């Protein structure tokens, strides 16, 4: 399936993933493609409106084909 990550500048990055992939894997794919360290950002899905934990699987968050996930920059010290 394909999911899209949108950054704070409204740039979209689309990835081919499996619903059993975890968020950490998706963040590593984003790091490889964009160069932003995986620990430098968080991923949020506004439906269901949760911060996505690294160990959670895409299916745990009901992320489906063509879902939009939003990247937020992690603040220093957080």
Automatic annotation (TrEMBL):
Matching Gene3D superfamilies: Phosphatidylinositol 3-kinase Catalytic Subunit, Chain A, domain 1
Start and end residues of each Ubiquitin-like domain: 1-78
SUPFAM superfamilies, A to Z: Ubiquitin-like (SSF54236)
PROSITE patterns named in the record: UBIQUITIN_2
Any Pfam family the entry gives: ubiquitin
Residues spanning the signal sequence: none
Protein name: Ubiquitin-like domain-containing protein
UniProt organism field: Meloidogyne enterolobii
């Amino acid at each position: 399936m394909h999911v899209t990550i949108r950054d704070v500048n409204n740039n979209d990055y689309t990835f081919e993933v499996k619903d059993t992939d975890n968020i950490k894997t998706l963040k590593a794919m984003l790091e490889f493609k964009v160069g932003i360290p995986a620990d430098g950002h968080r991923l949020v899905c506004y439906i269901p409106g949760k911060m996505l934990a690294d160990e959670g699987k895409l299916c745990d968050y009901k992320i489906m084909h063509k879902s939009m996930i939003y990247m937020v920059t992690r603040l220093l010290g957080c």
